[in-house]
Design brief:
Radius of gyration: 28 Å
Strand content: 15-25%
Structural class: alpha+beta
Strand order of the largest sheet: 1-2-3
Distance between the termini: 64 Å
Largest sheet: 3 strands, mixed
Order of helices and strands: EHHEEH
């Protein structure tokens, strides 16, 4: 990845060009005087949120789902 350092004063008139460079993978760093101040990075797209009801009718819960488990389960013994 290449890096391009540009002064804040130069960046004021070149924002669209700098955005295009960042989208192409160029590391753009803004400097104020001889100090590096800011790195421009692309924003990652947000993952799609959950959709309520997306699996409606596809998932089933048994009638005894919330009943206590038998002692055999906890003791490791099998009938």
């Amino acid at each position: 990845m290449s890096t391009r350092t540009i002064s804040v004063q130069q960046a004021e008139g070149q924002l669209l060009e700098l955005l295009r460079l960042v989208e192409q993978g160029v590391d753009v760093v803004l400097a104020y005087g001889d100090q590096l101040k800011v790195r421009l990075v692309p924003v990652e797209p947000r993952p799609r949120g959950r959709v309520f009801g997306q699996y409606q009718g596809q998932i089933r819960t048994s009638e005894d789902f919330d009943e206590p488990l038998p002692d055999e389960f906890w003791l490791g013994s099998h009938p």
